[in-house]
Amino acid sequence: MSSSTPDPLAPLGALPGVQDAVDSVRQSVDRIYGHRVMRRRSSEVSAEAALRGARASAALEGADWALEEMRRRTDFGAEGEPRAVGAALRVTAEAGQLLDVWRQSPMRVLARLHLVAAGGAGSDESVGRPRLAGEPVTATGTGDATGAGTAWAKEPPDADEVAARLDALARIVVDGTEVPALVLAAIVHGELATLRPFVSYNGLVARAAERIVLVGSGLDPKSICPAEVGQVEQGVGSYESALDDYASGTPEGMAAWIGRCGRALELGARETTAVCEALQRGAA
Questions:
Q1: pTM higher than 0.70 for the full model?
Q2: HSE on the CB side for 142, CA within 13 Å?
Protein backbone atom coordinates (compact mmCIF):
# COMPACT_ATOMS: atom_id res chain seq x y z
CA MET A 1 0.00 0.00 0.00
CA SER A 2 1.29 3.44 -0.92
CA SER A 3 2.56 5.46 2.01
CA SER A 4 0.32 8.33 0.86
CA THR A 5 -2.82 6.19 1.03
CA PRO A 6 -4.30 5.56 4.48
CA ASP A 7 -4.66 1.90 5.34
CA PRO A 8 -8.39 1.41 6.08
CA LEU A 9 -7.68 -1.60 8.28
CA ALA A 10 -4.96 0.03 10.38
CA PRO A 11 -7.29 0.98 13.27
CA LEU A 12 -8.26 -2.66 13.71
CA GLY A 13 -4.72 -3.65 14.62
CA ALA A 14 -4.84 -1.27 17.57
CA LEU A 15 -8.08 -2.63 19.04
CA PRO A 16 -7.81 -4.09 22.55
CA GLY A 17 -6.68 -7.71 22.51
CA VAL A 18 -5.92 -7.88 18.80
CA GLN A 19 -2.13 -7.78 19.10
CA ASP A 20 -2.28 -10.43 21.82
CA ALA A 21 -4.34 -12.63 19.49
CA VAL A 22 -1.85 -12.08 16.67
CA ASP A 23 1.09 -13.01 18.89
CA SER A 24 -0.65 -16.09 20.28
CA VAL A 25 -1.54 -17.33 16.80
CA ARG A 26 2.01 -16.86 15.58
CA GLN A 27 3.35 -18.95 18.45
CA SER A 28 0.84 -21.74 17.86
CA VAL A 29 1.53 -21.87 14.13
CA ASP A 30 5.29 -21.81 14.64
CA ARG A 31 5.04 -24.74 17.05
CA ILE A 32 3.20 -26.99 14.63
CA TYR A 33 5.52 -26.08 11.75
CA GLY A 34 8.42 -27.10 13.99
CA HIS A 35 7.00 -30.58 14.60
CA ARG A 36 9.37 -33.29 13.41
CA VAL A 37 6.67 -34.97 11.32
CA MET A 38 6.39 -31.81 9.21
CA ARG A 39 9.96 -32.28 7.99
CA ARG A 40 9.18 -35.44 6.09
CA ARG A 41 5.41 -35.91 5.85
CA SER A 42 4.07 -32.40 5.35
CA SER A 43 2.02 -33.36 2.27
CA GLU A 44 0.13 -35.98 4.29
CA VAL A 45 -0.47 -33.48 7.06
CA SER A 46 -1.76 -30.89 4.59
CA ALA A 47 -4.14 -33.40 3.00
CA GLU A 48 -5.55 -34.42 6.36
CA ALA A 49 -5.89 -30.80 7.46
CA ALA A 50 -7.80 -30.03 4.27
CA LEU A 51 -10.23 -32.89 4.89
CA ARG A 52 -10.81 -31.82 8.47
CA GLY A 53 -11.25 -28.21 7.44
CA ALA A 54 -13.81 -29.16 4.81
CA ARG A 55 -15.67 -31.34 7.31
CA ALA A 56 -15.84 -28.46 9.77
CA SER A 57 -16.92 -25.94 7.13
CA ALA A 58 -19.76 -28.26 6.14
CA ALA A 59 -20.69 -28.64 9.81
CA LEU A 60 -21.08 -24.87 10.05
CA GLU A 61 -23.65 -25.22 7.24
CA GLY A 62 -25.60 -27.84 9.21
CA ALA A 63 -24.02 -30.95 7.65
CA ASP A 64 -22.05 -32.33 10.60
CA TRP A 65 -20.61 -35.61 9.35
CA ALA A 66 -17.97 -37.75 11.02
CA LEU A 67 -14.60 -37.87 9.29
CA GLU A 68 -14.94 -41.56 8.51
CA GLU A 69 -18.29 -40.96 6.85
CA MET A 70 -16.69 -38.33 4.63
CA ARG A 71 -13.92 -40.76 3.70
CA ARG A 72 -16.30 -43.52 2.63
CA ARG A 73 -19.23 -41.63 1.07
CA THR A 74 -19.37 -40.77 -2.62
CA ASP A 75 -22.94 -39.49 -3.01
CA PHE A 76 -22.03 -35.82 -2.73
CA GLY A 77 -24.47 -34.73 -5.43
CA ALA A 78 -27.57 -35.78 -3.49
CA GLU A 79 -29.83 -33.08 -2.05
CA GLY A 80 -29.41 -31.84 1.50
CA GLU A 81 -26.38 -32.67 3.60
CA PRO A 82 -24.44 -34.65 0.94
CA ARG A 83 -24.52 -31.68 -1.43
CA ALA A 84 -23.29 -29.31 1.31
CA VAL A 85 -20.45 -31.69 2.19
CA GLY A 86 -19.51 -32.10 -1.47
CA ALA A 87 -19.46 -28.33 -1.91
CA ALA A 88 -17.18 -27.94 1.10
CA LEU A 89 -14.77 -30.55 -0.24
CA ARG A 90 -14.66 -28.97 -3.70
CA VAL A 91 -14.17 -25.42 -2.43
CA THR A 92 -11.42 -26.48 -0.01
CA ALA A 93 -9.55 -28.25 -2.81
CA GLU A 94 -9.99 -25.35 -5.23
CA ALA A 95 -8.78 -22.67 -2.80
CA GLY A 96 -5.21 -23.92 -2.98
CA GLN A 97 -5.12 -23.35 -6.74
CA LEU A 98 -6.11 -19.69 -6.62
CA LEU A 99 -3.39 -17.95 -4.61
CA ASP A 100 -1.77 -16.08 -7.48
CA VAL A 101 -5.10 -14.96 -8.93
CA TRP A 102 -6.28 -13.73 -5.51
CA ARG A 103 -3.51 -11.13 -5.29
CA GLN A 104 -4.49 -9.66 -8.65
CA SER A 105 -8.25 -10.17 -8.84
CA PRO A 106 -10.05 -11.24 -5.66
CA MET A 107 -13.42 -11.00 -7.38
CA ARG A 108 -12.39 -13.57 -9.97
CA VAL A 109 -11.44 -15.91 -7.15
CA LEU A 110 -14.72 -15.41 -5.31
CA ALA A 111 -16.65 -16.04 -8.50
CA ARG A 112 -14.67 -19.22 -9.11
CA LEU A 113 -15.20 -20.44 -5.55
CA HIS A 114 -18.93 -19.93 -5.86
CA LEU A 115 -19.01 -21.70 -9.22
CA VAL A 116 -17.13 -24.67 -7.75
CA ALA A 117 -19.31 -24.74 -4.64
CA ALA A 118 -22.52 -24.69 -6.67
CA GLY A 119 -21.30 -27.59 -8.78
CA GLY A 120 -24.27 -27.45 -11.13
CA ALA A 121 -26.81 -26.51 -8.47
CA GLY A 122 -28.84 -23.32 -8.93
CA SER A 123 -29.58 -21.38 -12.07
CA ASP A 124 -26.77 -20.72 -14.52
CA GLU A 125 -27.55 -17.02 -14.39
CA SER A 126 -26.90 -16.71 -10.66
CA VAL A 127 -23.83 -18.92 -10.31
CA GLY A 128 -20.40 -17.31 -10.21
CA ARG A 129 -21.49 -13.72 -9.83
CA PRO A 130 -22.74 -11.48 -7.00
CA ARG A 131 -26.49 -11.50 -6.60
CA LEU A 132 -28.61 -8.87 -8.28
CA ALA A 133 -31.34 -6.72 -6.77
CA GLY A 134 -34.30 -8.87 -5.82
CA GLU A 135 -32.41 -12.19 -5.85
CA PRO A 136 -32.86 -14.02 -2.54
CA VAL A 137 -30.15 -15.74 -0.54
CA THR A 138 -31.04 -19.43 -0.36
CA ALA A 139 -29.98 -22.26 1.90
CA THR A 140 -26.67 -24.05 1.44
CA GLY A 141 -27.19 -27.13 3.54
CA THR A 142 -29.93 -27.97 5.99
CA GLY A 143 -30.97 -24.56 7.33
CA ASP A 144 -33.98 -22.48 6.41
CA ALA A 145 -34.13 -20.15 3.42
CA THR A 146 -31.64 -17.71 4.88
CA GLY A 147 -29.53 -20.17 6.85
CA ALA A 148 -29.83 -21.09 10.50
CA GLY A 149 -28.90 -18.87 13.38
CA THR A 150 -28.91 -15.24 14.38
CA ALA A 151 -26.31 -14.05 11.89
CA TRP A 152 -28.29 -15.38 8.97
CA ALA A 153 -31.74 -14.44 10.19
CA LYS A 154 -31.11 -10.78 9.39
CA GLU A 155 -32.09 -9.38 6.03
CA PRO A 156 -28.96 -9.42 3.83
CA PRO A 157 -27.58 -6.12 2.55
CA ASP A 158 -28.98 -5.00 -0.76
CA ALA A 159 -27.13 -5.56 -4.02
CA ASP A 160 -25.80 -2.00 -4.24
CA GLU A 161 -24.25 -2.15 -0.79
CA VAL A 162 -22.80 -5.57 -1.53
CA ALA A 163 -21.18 -4.30 -4.74
CA ALA A 164 -19.66 -1.28 -3.01
CA ARG A 165 -18.27 -3.26 -0.10
CA LEU A 166 -16.91 -6.02 -2.32
CA ASP A 167 -15.12 -3.38 -4.37
CA ALA A 168 -13.62 -1.88 -1.21
CA LEU A 169 -12.51 -5.31 0.00
CA ALA A 170 -10.93 -6.11 -3.36
CA ARG A 171 -9.01 -2.83 -3.32
CA ILE A 172 -7.58 -3.65 0.11
CA VAL A 173 -6.41 -7.05 -1.11
CA VAL A 174 -4.86 -5.71 -4.32
CA ASP A 175 -3.31 -2.58 -2.81
CA GLY A 176 -2.07 -4.39 0.28
CA THR A 177 -2.39 -3.65 3.97
CA GLU A 178 0.01 -3.35 6.88
CA VAL A 179 -2.19 -5.23 9.35
CA PRO A 180 -1.19 -8.77 10.36
CA ALA A 181 -2.47 -11.68 8.29
CA LEU A 182 -4.86 -12.76 11.03
CA VAL A 183 -6.63 -9.41 10.91
CA LEU A 184 -6.98 -9.39 7.12
CA ALA A 185 -8.16 -13.01 7.11
CA ALA A 186 -10.76 -12.27 9.77
CA ILE A 187 -12.04 -9.27 7.83
CA VAL A 188 -12.29 -11.20 4.56
CA HIS A 189 -14.15 -14.01 6.34
CA GLY A 190 -16.47 -11.72 8.28
CA GLU A 191 -17.23 -9.43 5.36
CA LEU A 192 -18.15 -12.22 2.97
CA ALA A 193 -20.11 -14.20 5.55
CA THR A 194 -22.24 -11.20 6.55
CA LEU A 195 -22.63 -9.59 3.13
CA ARG A 196 -23.76 -12.89 1.59
CA PRO A 197 -22.83 -11.65 -1.88
CA PHE A 198 -23.99 -14.79 -3.69
CA VAL A 199 -27.37 -16.47 -3.81
CA SER A 200 -25.96 -19.54 -2.02
CA TYR A 201 -22.85 -21.09 -0.43
CA ASN A 202 -21.67 -17.82 1.10
CA GLY A 203 -20.31 -19.39 4.28
CA LEU A 204 -18.23 -21.91 2.36
CA VAL A 205 -16.86 -19.19 0.08
CA ALA A 206 -16.07 -16.92 3.05
CA ARG A 207 -14.10 -19.57 4.89
CA ALA A 208 -12.24 -20.66 1.75
CA ALA A 209 -11.25 -17.03 1.11
CA GLU A 210 -9.98 -16.76 4.67
CA ARG A 211 -7.86 -19.85 4.03
CA ILE A 212 -6.41 -18.26 0.88
CA VAL A 213 -5.38 -15.18 2.88
CA LEU A 214 -3.73 -17.27 5.60
CA VAL A 215 -1.78 -19.31 3.07
CA GLY A 216 -0.89 -16.46 0.73
CA SER A 217 0.31 -14.24 3.57
CA GLY A 218 2.82 -16.86 4.69
CA LEU A 219 1.23 -17.29 8.09
CA ASP A 220 0.16 -20.84 7.21
CA PRO A 221 1.83 -21.50 3.84
CA LYS A 222 1.18 -25.26 3.80
CA SER A 223 -2.44 -24.86 4.90
CA ILE A 224 -2.09 -27.15 7.90
CA CYS A 225 -4.04 -25.14 10.49
CA PRO A 226 -7.75 -25.57 9.66
CA ALA A 227 -9.42 -22.57 11.25
CA GLU A 228 -12.81 -24.05 10.35
CA VAL A 229 -12.19 -26.79 12.91
CA GLY A 230 -11.58 -24.15 15.55
CA GLN A 231 -14.79 -22.34 14.65
CA VAL A 232 -16.78 -25.54 15.18
CA GLU A 233 -14.99 -26.29 18.45
CA GLN A 234 -15.99 -22.88 19.76
CA GLY A 235 -19.61 -23.64 18.91
CA VAL A 236 -21.82 -23.18 15.86
CA GLY A 237 -24.25 -20.99 17.78
CA SER A 238 -21.49 -18.73 19.06
CA TYR A 239 -20.03 -18.55 15.54
CA GLU A 240 -23.26 -17.02 14.36
CA SER A 241 -23.33 -14.66 17.33
CA ALA A 242 -19.73 -13.63 16.61
CA LEU A 243 -20.72 -12.79 13.05
CA ASP A 244 -23.43 -10.60 14.52
CA ASP A 245 -20.66 -8.86 16.49
CA TYR A 246 -18.73 -8.34 13.26
CA ALA A 247 -21.80 -7.04 11.45
CA SER A 248 -22.36 -4.47 14.20
CA GLY A 249 -19.17 -2.70 13.11
CA THR A 250 -18.43 -1.56 16.68
CA PRO A 251 -14.84 -1.64 17.99
CA GLU A 252 -15.90 -4.20 20.60
CA GLY A 253 -17.62 -6.38 18.03
CA MET A 254 -14.72 -6.26 15.60
CA ALA A 255 -12.18 -7.04 18.32
CA ALA A 256 -14.28 -9.98 19.51
CA TRP A 257 -14.55 -11.36 15.96
CA ILE A 258 -10.82 -11.05 15.29
CA GLY A 259 -10.07 -12.67 18.63
CA ARG A 260 -12.41 -15.54 17.83
CA CYS A 261 -10.75 -16.08 14.44
CA GLY A 262 -7.38 -16.14 16.17
CA ARG A 263 -8.58 -18.73 18.65
CA ALA A 264 -10.03 -20.77 15.78
CA LEU A 265 -6.66 -20.84 14.08
CA GLU A 266 -4.97 -21.91 17.31
CA LEU A 267 -7.46 -24.74 17.72
CA GLY A 268 -6.83 -25.73 14.11
CA ALA A 269 -3.12 -25.91 14.88
CA ARG A 270 -3.91 -28.07 17.90
CA GLU A 271 -5.97 -30.40 15.69
CA THR A 272 -3.04 -30.80 13.33
CA THR A 273 -0.67 -31.39 16.22
CA ALA A 274 -2.83 -34.40 17.10
CA VAL A 275 -2.59 -35.55 13.47
CA CYS A 276 1.20 -35.25 13.57
CA GLU A 277 1.38 -37.20 16.81
CA ALA A 278 -0.77 -39.95 15.30
CA LEU A 279 1.43 -40.12 12.21
CA GLN A 280 4.50 -40.30 14.42
CA ARG A 281 3.02 -43.25 16.34
CA GLY A 282 1.98 -44.94 13.10
CA ALA A 283 -1.67 -44.66 14.08
CA ALA A 284 -2.70 -42.56 11.07
A1: yes
A2: 13
Instruction: Find the mean pLDDT for residues 41-45.
Output: 96
Distance spanning both ends of the chain, measured CA to CA: 44
Q: Residue 150 pLDDT > 50, yes or no?
A: no
Does residue 78 or residue 273 have the better pLDDT? 273
Dist CA 235 CA 48 (whole Å): 22
Torsions phi, psi for 185 (to 5 deg): -60, -40
Q: Which residues contact 88 (CB under 8 A, 6 or more apart)?
A: 54, 55, 57, 58, 61, 63, 204
Cβ burial of 120 (10 Å; 0-12, 13-18, 19+) is: exposed
In three-state secondary structure terms, 237 is helix
Per residue in 207-258, pLDDT tens? 999 999 999 999 999 999 999 999 999 999 999 999 999 999 999 999 999 9
Of 148, 77, 186, 135, nearest in space to 177 by CA: 186
DSSP string, 77-109: TSTTHHHHHHHHHHHHHHHTT-HHHHHH-HHHH
Neighbour count for residue 32 (Cβ, 10 Å): 24
Q: How many CB atoms lie within 10 A of CB 71?
A: 10
* Residue 6 burial (CB count, 10 A): 10
